[in-house]
């Protein structure tokens, strides 16, 4: 049996995917991948439409009420999410199951600076939006208000952590109990 190309270069199998193209997947795995992409596309498109409508209209309650009345979209979304959870996320993906993935993403967000990065990104986006859309502010914010908002970011992070270092989460967005 011939050795794998990356072992000849002194590298590991983990680094091989960047250096060498992956082997063709079996047709069954290709079909599974296509189905997963299609289903996740359904979910992502619903999220994208909601964000777009919010940017255009700005009235979250109105947009959400309209969304909740759209039974066709809700059914399509629910079916896609259930199929993804049952048939795709339950399988291990790149050595990590969905529960392990949720844990690692939560740790990254709450304990390793992910939340700070997300807040910084939101602030940059808000600054860019404010520069591109001239608005008249009826309630100008003072520097002390702004700095207290920034300190609130870290307090929210601290509130999510138990003294033992455990993260306390409430999952309110699941379409069913997949844990």
From TrEMBL:
GO molecular function: methyltransferase activity
InterPro entries in alphabetical order: Bmt2/SAMTOR (IPR021867)
Biased composition (Low complexity): 10-19, 141-155
Keyword terms, alphabetized: Methyltransferase, S-adenosyl-L-methionine, Transferase
Compositionally biased tracts (Basic and acidic residues): 26-37
Name of the molecule in the record: Uncharacterized protein
Protein's UniProt keywords contain Nuclease: no
Annotated stretches, region: Disordered: 1-42, 130-162
PANTHER family membership: S-ADENOSYLMETHIONINE SENSOR UPSTREAM OF MTORC1 (PTHR21008:SF0), S-ADENOSYLMETHIONINE SENSOR UPSTREAM OF MTORC1-RELATED (PTHR21008)
Biological process (GO), any one: negative regulation of TORC1 signaling
Transmembrane region(s): none
Methyltransferase among keywords: yes
